[in-house]
Amino acid sequence: MRPGPRNLITDVAGLRVGNAEDQAVRTGATVLLGEVPFTAAVHVMGGAPGTRETDLLAPDKLVQEVDALVLSGGSAFGLDAASGVADGLRALGRGFQVGDQRVPIVPGAILFDLLNGGAKDWDENPYKRLGRAALAAAAEEFVQGSAGAGFGATTGTLKGGLGSASAVLESGITVGALVAVNAVGSVTVGEGPHFWAAPWEMAGEFGGLGSAPAYPAGHEPPPMKRMGEATTIAIVATDAALSQAQCQRLATAAHDGMARAIVPSHSPFDGDLVFAAATGARALADPLADPFVLGHAAAACLARAIARAVYQARPMPGDLQPAWASLKARG
Predict the structure, then answer these.
(1) 282 pLDDT exceeds 70?
(2) Is residue 1 a part of any domain in this protein?
(3) Which helix (H) or strand (E) holds 257?
(4) Which of 116, 136, 276, 316 has the most CB atoms in a 10 Å sphere around its CB?
(5) Structural domain tally of the chain?
(6) What is the C-alpha to C-alpha distance for residues 330 and 93, in angstroms, rounded to an integer?
(7) Strand partners, 234
(8) Domain range for 274
């Protein structure tokens, strides 16, 4: 397993990512777009999720494919980002056909960034605009760190952000992850700069510091945010041909990566969830062994993407938390 050429989720051919931010509001939105509809599923493990159209991702539902997936800040207000994406897709003639109408299928999830110091006194919800702008920006290359849905994100100790990573397996199948990190837990060990995800790092992608010199086995982390103020929302994707049920299993396995990279994770304060997407370009050579390897790769990619999100977050005026770079500068 090795990183893809971009080390981004867009190493999965046919996928693009777009970001949009509102600096005054201190928030943003991110869209994962397929050139054509793709199979998708979701698995939720946090206690405070906020979602749109996730019920239809169950394997027994009529629609088996989606046009895009959306991650957004803004708590419940941010669910409107998917409406902006749907409007843009409809204008492009995309969507599930019903008679002479096209209905874009755009599930989404949100994180809470309403108390991060930005101006939240809007008269009109900004997220529909941000969603449409993110769609217009969709490309194979995109900014990580303080960008898109991670623009105003925080964690228990440091600024959060948007991160991505990829892996190409020996079989030739590609796996990628995209995540907005706004966790109640910490992505680094203690007060130092070492990442919990260090054992899965590839090619120094988040600083190459290695593992922390000591493991705080007896530490009991206090909640740093209040109920509902957190959430890490992610997408794992592959070019493998997977059914919706297999995608759901992939999303479930990917949660292991969240637990490896954020301590603690999946708390009652978080709305942690993972979408899984499959473009279907590559058939599984071994229907039993390949999903096993895919699950491991998805978890590893997600752990790496979480660390990269915090690693690349940049300091900005008005920050309520330090960026990771300040830890490295001190030690």
Answers:
(1) yes
(2) no
(3) helix 244-261
(4) 276
(5) 1
(6) 52
(7) 179, 274
(8) 9-330
Q: Tell which residue, 197, 133, 157, 128, has the closest CA to residue 313.
A: 157
- H/E stretch holding 260 reads helix 244-261
Q: Quick check: bond before 264 cis, omega within 30?
A: yes
User: Which amino acid belongs to residue 215?
Assistant: Y
The CATH number linked to 294 is 3.60.70.12
Q: What string of DSSP letters covers 6-59?
A: SSSGGGSTTEEEEEEEETTTTEEEEEEEEEEEEEEEEEE-SSS--EES-GGGST
Closest CA to 318 of 148, 143, 116, 112: 116
Q: How confident is the model at residue 329 (pLDDT cuts 50, 70, 90)?
A: low
CA nearest 4: which of 138, 134, 140, 149? 140
Token pair recorded at residue 154: 């925080």
pLDDT band with cut points at 50, 70 and 90 for residue 72: very high
Residue 314 lies in a domain: yes
CA gyration radius, the chain: 18
pTM value is 0.95
Q: Is pLDDT at 220 greater than 80 in this prediction?
A: no
pLDDT per residue over 234-252, tens digit each? Answer: 999 999 999 999 999 999 9
What would the DSSP string read from start to end of 72-137? ESSGGGGGGHHHHHHHHHHHTT-SEEETTEEE----EEE---TTSSS----SS-SHHHHHHHHHHT
Coil, helix or strand at residue 312: coil
For the chain, give the percent of residues with pLDDT over 90: 77
Is position 4 within any domain?
A: no
Q: Is 176 helix (H, G, I), strand (E, B) or coil?
A: strand
d(CA 106, CA 280): 19
Single-letter residue type at 301: C
Q: Record the tokens describing residue 7, joined without a space.
A: 């080390």
CA atoms within 13 A on the CB side of 318: 11
Q: Within a domain: residue 2?
A: no
